Amino acid sequence: MVIQRARSSDAKAQRADDLLDAAEALALELGGVRHVTLAPVTERAGLHRTAVRRYFESKEELLLELAERGWRQWREGVDRALEGRTGLTAREVADVLTDTLAALPVFCDCLTHVALSLEGDVSLERARIFKRNAFIEHDALVTALTEASVLSRAVVTALVPAASALAASFWQISHPSPSLAELYVQEPQWGHVAYDFEPKLRLLVESTAIGLMQTLPE
After folding, report:
1. CA–CA distances in Å: residue 82 to residues 88, 93, 100, 154, 196
2. Which of the four pLDDT bands, split at 50, 70 and 90, describes residue 125?
3. Would you tell me how many other CB atoms lie within 10 Å of the CB of residue 69?
4. What digits encode the pLDDT tens for the residues 42-53?
5. What are the phi and psi torsion angles at 127 (to 5°)?
6. Which of 13, 38, 81, 167 could share a disulfide with 108, CB 3.0–4.6 Å?
7. What is the domain extent for residue 186?
8. Does the record bear Glycoprotein in its keywords (predicted)?
């Protein structure tokens, strides 16, 4: 069933959300956002194939919006994880970051593509909006983690982007293409680096948090 064209601002916002939900679902099914194209997204959302252009100028803008939503979801997940907690250690902060990132696989995937192409493939104004909103969520993350932990703001400010960068890299490594997956079956001595996303992320985020506490001034 094709949904009728949205008229009100609320309806337009809902259509945009429907397209983002469809893109996220397809990314999970297909093995990553690089496989997402506009036609299946609009079909999944129940819209006419030309309708997507009323909400997003391109696939790149759609995926950048998905990444922007991921920043908000990450901050909301951290807020929930920190509710009522104080005095968290470096290890506990690392657990919060790891758990909340691992719960957002499409966001982890998008983080790589934001840096590689998405920001540069949209208009200057759209890139500006993304940067502004992403930094708002980043700063809120830093504040919440600093207030709930024994870590200094300098440590948390360095740790949050480190955690997101590690998540972006490890997600790509742990989700190999079909040909690479077959190679790892044939050559298992190489395949061990490609899996166990969450344990590897937790180890490295925790190690980074502890190391930053020892190297950065209070």
Report:
1. 9, 9, 11, 19, 25
2. very high
3. 21
4. 999 888 777 787
5. -65, -40
6. 167
7. 59-215
8. no
